[in-house]
Write the structure tokens for this entry.
Amino acid sequence: MIGVRNLYIKNDTTNPSFSFKDRPASVAVSKAREFGLRIVGCASTGNLASATVAHAVAAGLTGFVLMPDTVELPKVRQASIYGGKVILVDGTYDDVNRLAYLLVDTAEVGIVNVNLRPFYVEGSKTMMFETVEALGWRAPQHIVVPMASGALFGALYKGLHELEAFGAISDADTVFHGVQPTGCSPISTAFEKGADEVTPVRKPETLVKSLAIGNPGDGIYALNVARKTGGTCQKVSDDETVEAVKLLAKYTGIFAEPGGAITVAAVKQMRENGVIDAGDEVVCCVTGAGFKVDEVVEQVSGPAYVVPARLDKILETLQTNQPLSH
Ligand SMILES: Cc1ncc(COP(=O)(O)O)c(C=O)c1O
């Protein structure tokens, strides 16, 4: 359907809090506990929030999240269900992140993606360990990764090279492709321009809110990874991303949020632009579950038929779209 024969999905929609963020949050929260911190939180575009509070509260710590007030409602509710203190800030993710940096200077708190960030990255790299294991202990030819801050992208590269150093694989020559939504694509724009610096996007405009980081902390590292592996940084429109949500659901049974399915849209685009060949092996990282984004659930779901409690009505409804045969 998208032009490649050897496509693999690394499905992180089924983690405990339904995104890949359980990986970084679990390691960072464990470290916070080891350091004796009692209060642990995060700055989040939505997914890290639930992962952080779920792990923190279960570990007996106080969990809190700082998020922009534009985050999707299911993500706000999910974070509060775990017992976390949810603080919504009237501003962008970058405003939230700045406040998080000020907070760690002022109070004795752990913030998983600020003062615990090195440990956070250690968690994310396990996605590469599992990918290599699933392929029978070899590196994939191409990997396609959603980018917000760019941390996951760099973590996967780190994980791959650690496996090589450890002797688990002999050829860490995977080509890394990062993907951002067109309405917030500071890393991909720098890649396109051949720039060495990432110019922040002041006001992200995209429905792919989980990837809406205008000033990506790991942007320069992500650029380096794309360049030194012979990879690329892609931009994908919101419409193509929503199409990919539908395609992925229909052909694989995986219902992803746009921030996860964007990699599938990117592969289609990369085939059309000749970046990859039909016979190439591609791993798409699908990093978050679809139910977290109500706006997209509405856009991609079909109608439900309401009928009286009668068998003939059910048969009639089934036959409207396809003839029934025995
Ligand atoms: C679903 C999803 N995928 C990917 C990412 C990218 O993460 P990073 O900030 O490590 O680039 C995020 C970030 O929030 C996300 O929520």
